[in-house]
Structure formats: C-alpha cells, structure tokens
Amino acid sequence: MNHHERINAALAFDPPDRLPCAESFWDGTIDQWRREGMPQVDPADYFDLDLCHMWLDASPRFEQEIVERRDGMITFRDRFGYTVRKQDGLSASMEFSDHLTTDREAWARIKPRFALSPDPSEPARIDDASYFAHFNPYPTWDEAAAKHRRLRETNRYVLFGAYGPWEATWRHRGLDKLLMDIALEPDWLREMADAYVDLVIAILGRCLELDMKPDGVFLIEDLGSTRSLLFSPASWRATLGPAFGRLGDFLTRNGIHFWMHSCGAIQPIVDDLVERGLNVLNPLQVAAGMDAVELRARYGKRLAFFGNIDVHKMTGPRDVLHEELRRKVPLARQGGFIFHSDHSVPPTVPFDRYCWMLATARELFDSRESA
pTM to 2 decimals? Predict the structure, then answer.
C-alpha cells in the first residue's frame, strides 16, 4: 500500500500492510533533533509518515502583525482577533489578551468578516503552512491549488486542518468570557459558532470547486481538562453541537472523513461526536484517562483512533515505553488505529529514543506480538 491507501484501509477497519503512522512535533523539536544527528530532511520523509496537511484560514482576517520581538519572546496580533505573547520559535505557554469581540456590538461589526469573499482575486483561505503565526501572505487560489497537487504527488493522505467552533470563537471572544457565555448567553455562543462553521463550509466548497478535495478535515477543538469537559454535555449539545453536526453532514455528503483533535477527558460527549459524523479522534490524552484499548471495546468499528502513545513514557524507562507499545500497537492490525503521540512530541524526547520507539512499534505490528 502507499500512504494514502494505508490510512484509508485503517479508517475502513481493514488490515493495513504495515503500521499507519503520523506525528506532531513541538516547535523546536526538529531543530533539537538535528543537533543530535537527524539529517536535514523533511521529518515526514525521514520517518516515512503517512499524513500531510494543508490549513484553512477561517479567521475574520484582522491585520496580522508583530508587536514586539526581543529577549527570546514574541508578541503579535493575530488575524483571529487576539494578541498573544510567547517564546519565539518554541512551543510553550502562551499569554492571550486583547480579544476583539468585547460585547454584542463589537460582534455585530465582526460577524460580516466571517464570510467568504466572492472575489477570486482575494488571497486564498488555505495554505500548506499552519494558520497559527502565519505571517507570510496567503497564496492565490491558483497557487494554493498547485500546492495541493504537489501534496497529492506524495501519495500521502491529505488532511485540511482548521480550528473547531469552540477554539475559533474563544480566540476572538476570550476563553474566560466564552465560558461565562455558555451559562449566560448560550444563544449568542451558538450564533458565533454557526458563523464560523458557515465560513469553514464555504471555504471547503470553494476548494472542491477548484479540485482541491481533502481526504479528511481535521478540527483542532480542545474541549476538556485532564479531569472533565470544560462544560456540561448538555451545554455542548445546545451551543456547539448544531454547528458540529452541520459540518459533519457536509463532509459525509462529500465523501470526506471527519477527524478531530481534543485534549482532555471528553468521554461524556464521544457518543455525540460519533452521532454527528466524527470518524477519527485524536490525541486521546493518557493523563486525562483516555485509553484506546478501552475505547475500542466500547466503540468497535464506529470510531477510529489517532494517538494515545503516552509522551511522558517516551522519556522514562525503556521497558515501560515498550509495554505501552505492546499494549496499543496491536489495535492497528485490523484497522482503526493510527500511531501517534497522545499530543505532540517535545524536544525533551531524545532523537534516538524516538527512532527506537517508532522502529519498535513497527516491529511489534509485524511480529504479531500482543499483550
């Protein structure tokens, strides 16, 4: 199988020819690994990974600008309507501020920005670089289509990534305010979520018109802490669930798989996600009690899993990591499981340890060793 066929087999719960693999890396991890001896090549090529990405810009397109850059820190205003301060070039804690949807009057001015321009000369709302900290100009639609064709030539499975309606809305509204809105202004939250998903669907529609069809759409949508959902299941169903369902319907009609990333303990709404069309769940955070073996027993072939390899064990004793692999890798043999960390790999994981882990996982898959 090529990469594309391997992932499609996994999602159809058919036996893949080998372990389906992909990975996410913190900013700074690959730079650190190159200092440790990794060649100057694309990590996807070096590790022979099966996925590639393009990323939607479903923002209200405020001006993106750097406010300050010094002492290893960067502060910038983002096109999604917030300001953030973080370490420059590294994944670390981020300080968000100055969210532009301060009240309903501000929202009335901002809402029209969540519309796709009919002007084909406007910059594309998709690129092969992440939407986060995307300081370079967006390509034209023709240039974006050419990038999509080049990704197709790799024979990898192509995911289009975007924020989910919760992540997108708190970016311009503010997390603390949006948590209050769930209780005090649920209709307003639903309106903001709907406006965002309308834009995502419109962008995907434009992509389909230009023969840029993804294999899957991957929402980044953190809905939980390590202990629980951020809000009640009933609140999710009333405010965010309708938008999620409309996107799921659109993807199903167009033969596109529905993937979602959510950290945290989101078990109480997994059934709801599946009912609204979700095909693949990531990253299954171990510290939040998410366990792919237990979830497989519950969901069978209704839901595939992408992740759940405990990052904390990647820097611990090798025998503990081996047991983690021995328990979870066998899930992939009949499909429905794609090897990936339970979030993303930080630079504290040594290059040689990651290489050993991936090689061992592939050997376990091939050897048919299981717990």
Answer: 0.97
